[in-house]
Amino acid sequence: MSQLDLLYRLQQLDDEIRESKKRLTKVILLQKETSQLKKARQRVEVAADELHKSRGQQTDLNLELTTLTDKVQREETRLYSGTVTNTKELADIQHELESLARRRTVLEDELIEAMILAEEAQEEDEAARSELADVEATWLQDQEDLKNEQVELVNRINELTVVRKQQLAQMSAGSISAYENAIRRAGSSAVVLLKNGRCRGCQVTVPVNLIKNADEGKLVTCDSCTRILCPAYPHFLMLHFLNVPRH
Predict the structure, then answer these.
(1) 43 and 126 co-located in one domain
(2) N or C: which end of the chain has fewer CB within 10 A?
(3) CA distance 209 to 26
(4) Is residue 123 within 8 Å of 115, Cβ to Cβ?
């Protein structure tokens, strides 16, 4: 395999390593809680808080109503027991009973409203918890898939890194230096194909003499983008299919 072949092969390896690392970063980020999951958790927290408040209000009203009912019974006992004979005191008891009756009516209305609100809060709490369960189940399944993909990507990157070292061992110092210089000048795609007399990196027409040199296996660079040029012959194109086998 010529140095130009090795350079093109090195570019393919570096491209896959770069894309694999890019995907690995995304996979790691995707393993954080999603906004949908956070919203579902927040909905449960709000629903639980509202349910707690509505039940508390219902309990307080029940307690107050019970206390009021007990007081009514005591006052009625005093009124009708015959133990109280003073006219003014009897009138006071009667007025107290009327006041208690009005308060009981208000409490009963408030209790009915509280019961309705508690029932609605219970329904919202159940709906929120059901939604959270569904969202969590989907998220956990995704996490399992992402963790498996993360392991595969790490293994793939390690494989490619080993192959890259082996590749570099076959290359001359001059080829490696030319490749590194091209990367610094042109970016990640340092080696590109020549096709129909054009550089595939910048799409600029390449002079005939540079095309001839590239066809002869010499290391030449595009005058426009400074990338290393490789002729688009079948033996170069076949390098696309010579990547490390996936397990």
Answers:
(1) yes
(2) C
(3) 44
(4) no
pTM of the model: 0.62
A 10 A CB-CB count for 143 gives: 15
- Cα(152)–Cα(23) distance, rounded to whole angstroms? 11
* Count of structural domains within the chain: 2
How do the pLDDT tens digits run along the chain, 247 residues long? Answer: 688 889 999 999 999 999 999 999 999 998 998 999 999 999 999 999 999 999 999 999 999 999 999 999 999 988 888 887 888 988 998 999 999 999 999 999 999 999 999 999 999 999 999 999 999 999 998 999 999 999 999 999 999 999 999 999 999 999 999 999 989 888 778 999 998 899 988 999 999 999 999 888 888 999 999 899 988 764 444 444 444 445 4
Q: Name the residue range of residue 90's domain.
A: 33-138
